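Box S1 | Example of a co-folding query
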Amino acid sequence: MNYIYDYSLKDLENYFVEKGLKPYKAKQVFKWLYEKRIHDFDLMSDLSKDLIETLKDELCISRLNIVKSQKSKDGTIKFLFELHDGSLIESVLMHFDYGYSACISSQVGCNMGCSFCASGLLKKQRDLQSGEIVLQILMLQEELDKQNLRLGNIVVMGTGEPFDNYDNLMKALAIVNDPFGLAIGSRHISISTCGLVPMIERFAKENVQYNLAVSLHAATDELRNKLMPINKAYNLDKLMSAIKYYSELNNRRITFEYLLLNDVNDREEDAKAIKKLIKGLNAYINLIPYNEVEENEYQSVNDEKALRFYDMLKKEGVAVTLRQKRGTDIDAACGQLRAKEILK
Ligand code: SAH
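Box S1 (continued) | Returned holo structure for S-adenosyl-L-homocysteine
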């Protein structure tokens, strides 16, 4: 059976047309699903009884199962969801000054193998379907509905490499971005990649306004090779060429994420290498405090060192921000909760 949350508005229109029905029915259904957030065909009161029966026979409207949710002192809520095949994924709801943001997963596990990351502790089992990506967002919105609040932002920075599940991700984002879907604006959606060069090039030509974030974490090949195996396939030269290409086609500012790993990538020479690397690009560096993971040896920098590195970059004339820590008391680092659940 097909899953209704996998359907874009266009897919649903085609579905109705194939049945000899009017395509506008798709908009009605979309409204029920995403605006009224009803997940029971029987409650879709402006559809005929016959159509409701057909939909029930042909399309599955089932949701993700909430296995666990943990609320942090800072209001961050982390969800562990179970998919229809029993796989587990995590999603996080965060509150910032500018509103609520959902951090969502794109795959079950991850194959990128970054040495500091908990997601890679469990290899990729499969890609998420579009509907499973959509449902994470929809269900976080429903959590906010309890207080009449709206989800304003999406970051694809949970478990998985989004560009390794490119088509399903793009479709899911189109659904939540659709004015008849959740109507979350493109500029409020960010995709983070570890640097899959061919996909960055493809994304460059996509003609969408989503924000692109690239996990840099090191500004020399020598260090990046140690932290991120992807660098051996696509080194910094290739990565930066792809990013320049993206910049030429899209007038958008790029974010480089840079984890602060104590005594690994927080030295003055690292700051200088960053400056050299991103010179001339419309980009900024987002420094991320590291959430420590039991299974590896990396340590987070303390606040003083984080600020020192921030100042070094400022001095070099690099545009830089320092991300606030979120949910550290609830294992909110990528893949931590899922890994704990499975490896326990
Ligand atoms: N695969 C994608 C998206 C998922 S990871 C990517 O690599 O960008 C999202 C971000 O969280 C990445 O920048 C990643 O390097 C970072 N990250 C991974 N483990 C972390 C940890 N323990 N603490 C803080 N950030 C982490």
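The chain is about 35% helix and 20% strand. The first strand starts at residue 2 and ends at 3.
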